[in-house]
TrEMBL record:
Sorted UniProt keywords: Signal
Full protein name: Transglycosylase SLT domain-containing protein
Domain Transglycosylase SLT as annotated: residue spans: 168-255
Domain of life: Eukaryota
Leader sequence segment: 1-19
Basic residues bias locations: 47-60
Length: 315
């Protein structure tokens, strides 16, 4: 038998063995899936094409730093450009997430009971029956108007926030929160009046409570930079504790909690602290009002359906 024939047979056998063996063991595949699940925001972004070559090529060494193990020894394909998902925070369109509470009911324009981030019945899922069951929505899923774009409208409610926009942008970027969301908290809490003191001693733009005032410059808890940074960090920490669950975190900011019923939300209505009720229209007003550059307190388009705080007006 010729030497070339022997070499060819050995080479063919090696190729066949390599072809039937997976490039990674089961544990490596699990780790890869975990890495992909953490990174995959845009469907299809992390897909890789299999090599169409039928030649037997040397198996590459595994690298702990590679997201996907290469399947050929040739140069890797150029990375795909990241595209903005239709469900990105600042993108056009309607909220699109998985729902176990029926139709999201999102509408392009904000109405009394709906808007780009869903219908009030969906946002309040379960509250009028067994208890509030917030659906999982991330910050990057929601639809918002860019704060700079909002301020180009002379009628924007955020005109009152003009002096503080650079601070909202600074801490929004630092804590991963859309600047308009921080400005929305300020509008909802103080109408962007840095000198506001709440009925319970809450301080400044974001109405932070007294126990959060430690370290305020000169003891001034109303200092805009300190006040906004403190509130931004608090909300970012709340999001982290809730594993990125935005609805649960926003609800907590207004005293809501999972399984809360309508009766529980309104139980303070006839107490000595009527305004201690939980505003049942809060999520709709925040997500489909303030974040869409609309004044949630404007009676021209009154946002909500419960208005359970109205009973407090004459008290």
């Amino acid at each position: 038998m010729k030497v070339s024939t022997v070499l060819f047979a050995v080479f063919s056998t090696a190729c066949a063995v390599s072809a039937i063996q997976p490039h990674n063991g089961g544990s490596d595949l699990t780790a890869r899936h975990l890495r992909l699940s953490r990174r995959a925001v845009i469907p299809g972004l992390n897909k890789t094409r299999r090599s169409t070559s039928r030649r037997c090529k040397p198996r590459p060494k595994k690298s702990d730093n590679a997201l996907v193990a290469p399947t050929s020894s040739g140069p890797p394909p150029e990375p795909k450009k990241k595209e903005v998902s239709s469900s990105s925070g600042s993108g056009a369109g309607l909220l699109q997430v998985q729902s176990s509470c029926g139709d999201i009911g999102a509408t392009k324009e904000t109405t009394n009971e709906s808007g780009p981030n869903g219908h009030i019945n969906w946002l309040n899922c379960g509250m009028e029956s067994g208890g509030w069951n917030p659906q999982f929505v991330r910050v990057e899923d929601i639809k918002t108007v860019d704060l700079n774009q909002a301020l180009q409208d002379p009628g924007s409610p955020y005109q009152a926030c003009q002096p503080f926009v650079p601070i909202f942008q600074k801490y929004g970027g630092q804590f991963g929160i859309p600047p308009i969301m921080l400005a929305a908290f300020a509008m909802q809490e103080s109408s962007c009046n840095a000198e506001t003191t709440g009925g319970g001693g809450e301080q400044g733009l974001m109405q932070i409570t007294q126990e959060k005032c430690g370290g305020a410059p000169g003891g001034n808890c109303k200092d805009p930079d300190f006040n906004i940074r403190t509130a931004a960090k608090f909300f970012a920490d709340t999001l982290n504790r809730n594993n990125g669950d935005l609805l649960k975190s926003l609800g907590a900011y207004n005293g809501w909690f999972p399984s809360m019923t309508a009766a529980q939300a309104k139980e303070a209505a006839h107490s000595g602290c009527c305004r201690c009720q939980k505003n049942m229209d809060y999520l709709h007003q925040f997500l489909n009002g303030w974040l869409q550059n609309k004044n949630a307190y404007d009676n021209t388009l009154r946002l909500g359906k419960f208005f359970n705080l109205d009973i407090c007006l004459n008290l």
